[in-house]
TrEMBL record:
This is Chromate transporter. InterPro entries: Chr_Tranpt_l_chain, Chromate_transpt. It comes from Tumebacillus amylolyticus. The chain crosses the membrane at residues 84-107, 119-139, 151-182, 202-220, 232-251, 271-291, 298-319, 331-351, 363-393. The keyword Membrane applies.
Length: 394
């Protein structure tokens, strides 16, 4: 059998990937689902870099991997077009605009009492509605039956009673085990071969490197504050199932109890992250900038996205086989249900407890929720409106 060739570096294609992904990074508002729509229009319909079936297969893979699904799809398409460096170029182009904007926002907050500006409280109230919308949408799609809804409620209760990063990780592992043994097995799906030509040896090396970092970084983090930062963000990027808004409770458990940043700073950055294009995971850039300036922003951004490269490269050669296994699908069903519960707990603490102080806060949160859910107003518009209303009301 003829061996498949791994895509080699193609400089013109590399710069083309960077240029197109940078345009998407500047214009892709609306969250992961909207990002995939932009990708499809640009990569499938306009440029025809891949067909509908190949795109759907990539989306299906990245939806079940931990980490930011839309960024992972972009990385995979970049790899298809220009090899491994194409994946890096795609990530840089799509991620850099929002990462820079959020780092600048963190810099502007330096030296300011984050509890004082009235517009900042408006951002905190906007975060209540945005997280509530995420819980609403995810619950409808990920907990459609009694067993999964029960699992989500139990996960929320445990998270509220024992709020820590370790508890969240144990919940995800336990939910996967419950899915394996208890949840109804979905039917097997017919799939095509994964569209990327990556070797299984390279894939195994990626997964081994991921495991080595997850196991080794906690041992070396006490030696340096920057290593401690890298370890925290790498772990979040490796273990956040559901992407997008689910990064909120995981990051909060890593950086607020340790005293790295205050809850007000944390939620202000989360609100600001809704007003910029690109992936929500660049929220890490904001936190890193508060911790250690531009150096911290770079470390946090690289650390939280690095697992995406290792997971995409490590799973594609095996995806067609794994995706059709009923047991694997059942495990993912359990994990996704627990993710809904973890996010539901975060809606109360810290989001609600920090932002809602009096009836006018509840009124503004309800107005914002209605604009998002029923009037379909983009989140970034709602955030700007709440900041403006906050400056007038508080």
């Amino acid at each position: 059998m003829k061996r498949k060739e791994i895509p080699s570096m193609n400089v013109p294609a590399l710069f083309e990937v960077l240029r197109v992904s940078f345009k998407l990074g500047l214009t892709s508002f609306g969250g992961p689902v909207a990002h995939l729509g932009y990708f499809r229009a640009e990569y499938v319909e306009k440029r025809k870099w891949l067909d509908e079936r190949a795109f759907a297969d990539l989306v299906a893979l990245c939806q079940v991997l931990p980490g930011p699904a839309s960024s992972q799809v972009g990385i995979a398409i970049g790899m298809m077009r220009a090899g491994w460096l194409g994946g890096v170029a795609s990530w840089i182009g799509f991620t850099m605009p929002s990462a820079i904007l959020l780092a600048v926002f963190a810099w502007l907050l330096q030296g300011m009492d984050a509890g004082e500006p009235s517009w900042l409280h408006g951002l905190l109230v906007a975060a209540v509605a945005i997280v509530a919308q995420a819980v609403w949408g995810m619950a409808k799609s990920l907990t459609p039956d009694r067993p999964r809804a029960t699992l989500a409620v139990c996960a929320a209760i445990v998270t509220l009673l024992w709020p820590s990063a370790l508890v969240q990780i144990l919940l995800i592992l336990a939910a996967g085990l419950i899915g394996w043994t208890w949840l109804a097995k979905p039917s097997v799906v017919n799939v095509q071969e994964a569209p990327l030509h990556l070797s299984k040896r390279g894939a195994v090396l990626c997964l081994l490197l991921l495991a080595a970092c997850l196991l080794g970084l906690p041992w070396v983090r006490p030696t340096s504050p920057l290593l401690a930062e890298f370890d925290s963000f790498f772990r979040v990027g490796s273990l956040v199932f559901g992407g997008g808004h689910v990064v909120l409770p995981m990051l909060q458990a890593e950086v607020v109890p340790t005293g790295w940043i205050t809850e007000t700073q944390f939620l202000a950055g989360y609100g600001a992250a809704q007003a910029v294009p690109g992936p929500l995971f660049t929220f890490a850039s904001y936190i890193g900038a508060i911790l250690a300036g531009w150096k911290g922003a770079v470390i946090a951004t690289v650390a939280i996205f690095l697992p995406s490269f290792l997971l995409v490269g490590g799973s594609l050669p095996f995806w067609s086989t794994l995706r059709g296994m009923p047991k694997v699908q059942a495990v993912l069903n359990g994990i996704n249900a627990a993710v809904v519960g973890i996010l539901l707990a975060a809606l109360y603490n810290p989001v609600w407890t920090k932002a809602i102080r009096e009836p006018i806060d509840v009124a503004l949160a309800l107005l914002t929720f209605g604009l998002l859910v029923f009037w379909k107003v983009p989140a970034w518009v709602v955030v700007l409106v709440c900041g403006g209303i906050g400056s007038l009301l508080y």
